[in-house]
Amino acid sequence: MKKNKLQWISGLLLAVFILNGCKKESDIDGSSTEAPVRPTTGTSNAYVTQLFEYLPAPGQFINTASGDSDGAESILGKKGLISLGAWGGRIVLGFDHTVINQAGKEDLIISGNAGSSIAEPGVVYVMQDKNGNGKPDDTWYEVSGSEFGKDGYLRDYSVTYTRPNPAGDVAWVDNKGNTGVVKTNAFHTQAYYPEWVKEDSYTLTGTLLPKRNIDDSVPSNIKSMPFEFGYADNTSGGDKINIENAIDEDGKKVSLKGIDFIKIQTGVQFNMGWLGEFSTEVLGVADLSLYKD
User: Fold this and answer.
1) What is the per-residue pLDDT for 293?
2) Phi, psi (5° rounding) for residue 38?
3) Are 232 and 291 in contact (CB under 8 A)?
4) How far is 14 from 128, CA to CA, in rounded Å?
5) How many Cβ atoms are within 10 Å of 167's Cβ, its own excluded?
6) What is the DSSP letter of 60?
7) Residues 233 and 112: beta-carbon distance below 8 Å
8) Are 232 and 280 spatial neighbours (Cβ–Cβ below 8 Å)?
9) CB within 8 A of 51, min separation 6: which ones?
10) Are 141 and 261 in contact (CB under 8 A)?
11) If 121 and its partner were Cys, which of 129, 205, 234, 262 is the partner (CB 3.0–4.6 Å)?
12) Within 13 Å and on the Cβ side, how many CA atoms surround 290?
């Protein structure tokens, strides 16, 4: 009897050991853990406070005060101005706290310089710091806006830009076989290809938005109307973003407790005549729950 009891206890201990081993393994791969939440404190900044990447596409403001690293840093902790250039140009930013996804409410506000007939919508992506290392190296989720799934909307779109020699219009080719140029204009005569990019060509990938908002029937007065919702630099007064609209790579909604990082990317490829290339500009990115205009 004593021997049987010892065997039973040994078996029980072995089962507990195996279960604990399985639990630890699932904790490591993240399947059973939630993203950590960095709480808001009395010193939390409403605005983004960290710049992780600024990689614009070529454009008329690139290599100027509103199109370089200093310009990108101008929107940290406050409002400033940074241009993302033509399609695909992007900026990656971080908050000093987790922006909580509040049910039924908009959570972020992105200030741009859009006007009533000149909107330059940028696609918004969000990320939670699931591994807790303070870096945007987890999964990006696109925030679906009004153009999601419509004609002309395309995910996994890529454009390669090539440095002109001598300086001038910047040629591009996309992953669909289309070609074009980012045209220079008389108002901005500096090089449009980012001078800090050492390679003679580079590729940007993301979501392409439809051009249905653009009216170029009068070439001297091209208009770019705002989309209904969900994009940066889309409406005057700032664009409010709902984290609940985040989607995964299959286009399905994801449930995020909050987000720590945000990426904004110019969403349309179009030459706007004398106005220059279609380019998303960002003046500020803030947690709407802390934001005071």
Assistant:
1) 77
2) -90, 115
3) no
4) 37
5) 13
6) T
7) yes
8) yes
9) 69, 72, 73, 76, 91, 92, 93, 94
10) no
11) 234
12) 21
Residues constituting the chain: 293
Q: Looking at residue 225, what DSSP letter applies?
A: P
Q: Is the dihedral of CA 215, 241, 207, 261 positive or negative?
A: positive
Q: What ranges do the domains of the chain cover?
A: 1-33, 50-287
Its sign, for the CA torsion 88, 89, 94, 99, is negative
Band of the pLDDT at 53, cuts 50, 70, 90?
very high
Q: Cα–Cα distance between 144 and 124 in angstroms, integer?
A: 8
- Strands 170-174, 154-162: pairing is antiparallel
Task: Please state whether 156 falls in left (phi above 0), alpha (psi between -120 and 50) or beta.
Answer: left
Query: Looking at this protein, which amino acid is placed at residue 276?
Result: G
The SS3 call for residue 104 is: coil
Burial (CB < 10 A; 0-12, 13-18, 19+), residue 138, is: middle
By C-alpha distance, which of 47, 90, 109, 56 is closest to 236?
Answer: 109
Identify whether the C-beta of residue 209 lies closer than 8 Å to the C-beta of residue 267.
yes
Between CA 143 and CA 232 the distance in angstroms is: 11
28, 269 Cβ separation under 8 angstroms: no
Quick one: tokens of 76? Answer: 């940290």
Residues 6 or more apart whose Cβ sits within 8 Å of residue 21: none
* Alpha-carbon distances, residue 66 vs 30, 71, 216 (angstroms): 40, 5, 26
Cα separation, 158 vs 154, whole angstroms: 10
- The pLDDT of residue 17: 39
Longest Cα–Cα distance in the chain? 97
φ, ψ of residue 253 in degrees (nearest 5): -65, 145
* DSSP 8-state symbol, 35: P
CA 48 to CA 286: how far, in whole Å?
Answer: 6
> What percent of the chain clears pLDDT 70, i.e. is strictly above it?
89
Strand, helix or coil at 14?
helix
